[in-house]
Design brief:
This protein is of the alpha+beta class and about 220 residues long. Helix content is about 25%, strand content about 40%. The model has no long low-confidence stretch (mean pLDDT about 90).
């Protein structure tokens, strides 16, 4: 019977057994198939691994050599230097329905809207090439948000291949990751390993913000 909670040592034992099986068929089609398959095959109905030292440990899985990203956390509180609706109307681009939005994965190179990610010693910001600051995050606040959201993370990596219409996985490794700091986050952003996703659109009289995503 699946358990409500699994200890870290129980996870290690269950994962080693799963890895020894080799290729396994996905239990669900689509992007979420890898996480669902992992949890089902190790007997974890909900993401609830616990450790006496670390508390609850987040579990995330990804396909090796995939370009898909993992969302670490979102953070928008008191970061907007421009009114978000004003920013959308000034720098947004239309979607297929003609609705303006800021759906950009930010980098330090200006995009077609002239927006780029500016990295300093204590903060990062989204700026326009004109010098206008759209939003700004303090790195220490990002580190604290990350630590609250993910105090510890098990990152599972798997090979993936399609066999006809079915996806198959070969679970290869699981890494326990703990601890972060403002300097770590800054360095990972500079290295391009943490990306910043703006995700908001025009709702006529206001902006609908889905949360700025910090993704890996």
């Amino acid at each position: 019977m699946p358990k409500d909670k699994m200890t870290l040592s129980e996870f290690i034992e269950a994962f080693n057994k799963l890895r020894a099986k080799g290729w396994v068929k996905s239990e669900r089609r689509g992007p979420t198939g890898i996480g669902h398959t992992l949890e089902k095959l190790i007997g974890l109905p909900e993401n609830n691994i616990v450790s006496p030292d670390l508390g609850t440990i987040e579990l995330k899985a990804h396909r090796i050599n995939s370009n898909s990203m993992i969302t670490l956390f979102t953070f928008n509180r008191k970061v907007w230097k421009m009114n978000p609706l004003e920013a959308i109307k000034k720098y947004g681009t239309p979607d297929e329905n003609g609705r303006l939005g800021l759906y950009f994965t930010m980098s330090r190179t200006p995009n077609n809207a002239g927006l780029f990610l500016h990295v300093e010693s204590k903060a990062i910001s989204v700026r326009h090439v004109s010098g206008e600051i759209v939003a700004e995050w303090q790195l220490q606040e990002l580190a604290e948000r990350f630590a609250r959201k993910i105090p510890a993370l098990i990152l599972v990596s798997a090979f993936s291949e399609m066999r006809g219409d079915d996806e198959w996985f070969k679970f290869d490794r699981a890494q326990l990751l703990t601890g972060t700091s403002a300097d770590i986050i800054r360095n990972q952003i500079l290295a391009g390993n943490i990306l910043v996703d703006l995700r908001l659109h025009d709702k006529i009289t206001s902006a609908r913000n889905h949360g700025t995503g910090f993704r890996a």
